[in-house]
Amino acid sequence: MKFLICGGAGYVGSHMVRYLVENQHDVVVYDDLSTGHREAVADDVAFVHGDIGDAVTLWRLFATHKFDAVMHFCARSLVGESVVDPYQYYRNNVANTLMLLAAMREAGIQRLVFSSTAAVFGNPRSDTIDETHPTDPINPYGQSKLMIERVLADAYRAYGLRSVALRYFNAAGADPSGIIGESHHPETHLIPNLLRAVLGNGPGLKVFGDDYDTRDGTCVRDYVHVNDLASAHLLAVEFLEENEGAFTFNLGNGEGFSVREVIAAAQRVTGREVPHAIAPRRPGDPPTLVASSLQARRMLGWQPRIGVLDDILDSAWRWHLQPRY
Ligand code: UFG
Hints:
This protein is of the alpha/beta class. It has helices at about 10-20, 55-65, 80-85, 85-105, 140-160, 190-200, 225-240, 260-270, 295-300, 310-320; strands spanning about 1-5, 25-30, 45-50, 70, 110-115, 130, 160-170, 170, 205-210, 220, 225, 245-250, 255-260, 275-280, 290. Strands 3-2-1-4-5-7-12 form a seven-stranded parallel β-sheet, sandwiched between helices. A four-stranded mixed β-sheet has the order 6-15-10-13. It has a two-stranded parallel ribbon with strand order 8-11. α1 links the parallel β1 and β2. α2 runs parallel beside α4 (about 85-105), α6 crosses α8 and α8 (about 260-270) packs across α10 (about 310-320). It is globular. The mean pLDDT is about 95.
């Protein structure tokens, strides 16, 4: 199949591209490189520099290539930044996505896989979150993703667009090749910050809060390997060949680890101490976020391969020892 990967130079998008190429699919990457890295896309993969809000470039792209499906990874994704500058989030994540959807409609492309997030749930009302859990985002980032989920439901009813929104819990790890990995500027995520602290790059790790109502007082998250997210996207496109509608699936391993447990695992994997200190809570962090992914397993046939936290950390560690960007 031939895919347009919007945001294919970003963390999850670049792993998706690699996964598709390894599975003999044809790929064009479309990325404005505002947060992604050109080095994350292999030289022999077609790359178009552009923004999904740019109707002219999109039109040209769709006139040149005949895509079977689009995968959409372009988004601003920092919760704190979204609170400070919501217009940026609504413009990039909502308005620009509408431009992409309109261009797809004109080009007659009927399948889309959209990157959504656990942030659509806000403060969860149960420890394990399945797709029936109410959505109630508590920040503009989560709102922007939920808005597009709703647009996709309407787009199916009105135009027959088939879509799957995949709500990632905590994307983590790196491709075992060590060629691509997680690199954000600024970096806010636990695992990269923790591994940089191990390597002595930057300040020691700050643990945001140890007084939550969890087993050891630190926040609990469900870490899912980035290549397992990639496999879910391809299964989602295959699912849309047989099924019509706008679907949503939660993606996680179904097991939560506290920040302290992640630190302990990182010490096992690296064989080194993780310098860290307790800091105040970070605003907007729910105490526990753990997915039920039974739907994705049942309906998509999804089976995470790197489900053990130490293995996820090990893949991230290999990247952090020799980051290329
Ligand atoms: N944490 C630290 N120190 C750090 C970074 C993180 O203690 O330097 C803690 C956080 O407070 C949180 C946990 O580690 O308890 C995980 O934090 P991340 O920033 O790695 O990930 P989040 O759970 O905040 O983010 C994820 C997704 C977002 C989504 C959010 C919903 O990456 O896309 O869940 O709450 F919006």
